[in-house]
Specification:
Structural class: alpha/beta
Strand content: 15-25%
Number of helices: 10
Bound molecules: ligand 7PM
Helix content: 25-40%
Order of helices and strands: EEEEEHEHEHEHEHEHHEHHEH
Number of strands: 12
Radius of gyration: 17 Å
């Protein structure tokens, strides 16, 4: 099936889906806490961003309350709950939108599933205590992402023998654990985890092998939006200058078989994908 079952809703993957990033952390790397003032989340600004993303053609909104940028320290489960759940509630009350929750924490998975979340997106691939069980219980689709080490240390010295084999093997092992926990195979999305414990060379090896990930039969999610790999390729230090590069790489990822594109710049990415789709006959 070319779709994911998200509770009462469905995410169609017949064409590449666009996932709009909404970071509700005060220190996110590329959207620098612009939803915050006096370290307080501005909920009306957040809803405005979500409304715009939906108008611009986002298929799903990804809400995250833990910063996973390189060097970031972990947040307490209660703090993550306090950040994410009110935003989820506000978004689902106001809009008939699909919302994925970017979390590794079992309590957040369980609480979000009970309050209308449509998907679980875990950069730790459900490795934390209780996460896999909470996800299985929710019956929601899960995105399993590869990361080497933890955010605090992942970019210090990323090392692989064969990066493609290691990342693929990890994801297929996590898939096996998910199946054993009762998660339906058709609900599993895989993600190579660009920028998570990877050098530029590692990222490019994985990017050029997206088709190999797609060969697993699982929908592939790709998140390269405004990341340093784009800055490194064409020397752009400022994340605001990486929009064109991000759009180009999202389109290239889709052409290599990615089915979900996790992006900051929904309008620009939607246009690129729609142009590509329109040229097919
Ligand atoms: C460095 C790496 C800085 C990542 C900032 C980020 C992904 C994700 C994030 C991804 C999935 C950001 C992030 N990236 N979830 N969450 N895939 N599935 O761009 O690539 O906000 S966090």
């Amino acid at each position: 099936m070319n779709s994911l079952r998200c509770g009462h809703k469905t995410l169609d993957l017949g064409r590449p889906a666009i996932m709009g990033i909404v970071n509700v952390t005060p220190d996110s790397f590329s959207d620098g806490g612009h939803l915050f003032s006096n370290s307080q989340l501005n909920i009306s600004k957040t809803l405005q961003l979500v409304e715009n993303m939906l108008l611009w053609g986002a298929d799903i909104i990804d809400i995250g309350g833990e910063s996973t940028r390189p060097g970031a320290v972990e947040v307490a489960p209660q703090q993550e709950l306090d950040r994410v759940i009110p935003v989820l509630e506000a978004v689902t009350t106001r809009f008939d939108a699909l919302v994925s929750i970017d979390t590794s924490t079992s309590a957040v998975i369980a609480e979000a599933a009970g309050r209308g979340a449509s998907m679980i997106n875990d950069v730790r691939a459900l490795t934390r205590d209780g996460a896999i069980e909470a996800a299985a219980e929710s019956k929601l689709p899960v995105c399993l992402m590869h990361m080497q080490n933890q955010p605090k240390t992942m970019q210090l010295a990323p090392t692989y023998g064969d990066v493609l084999t290691e990342v693929l093997d990890f994801l297929l092992l996590r898939k096996k654990h998910c199946l054993e926990a009762g998660i339906d195979s058709s609900q599993i999305v895989l993600d190579p985890g660009f920028g998570f414990g990877k050098t530029l060379a590692h990222n490019l090896s994985l990017f050029n092998a997206i088709d190999r990930f797609a060969d697993t039969g699982h929908p592939i999610l790709v998140g390269v939006s405004r990341k340093s790999m784009i800055g490194e390729l064409i020397s752009l230090k400022n994340t605001d200058d990486r929009i064109t590069g991000s759009v180009v790489m999202a389109l290239m990822a889709a052409q290599r078989g990615a089915k979900i594109l996790r992006v900051h710049d929904v309008r620009e990415t939607r246009q690129a994908i729609d142009i590509w789709e329109s040229t097919k006959f």
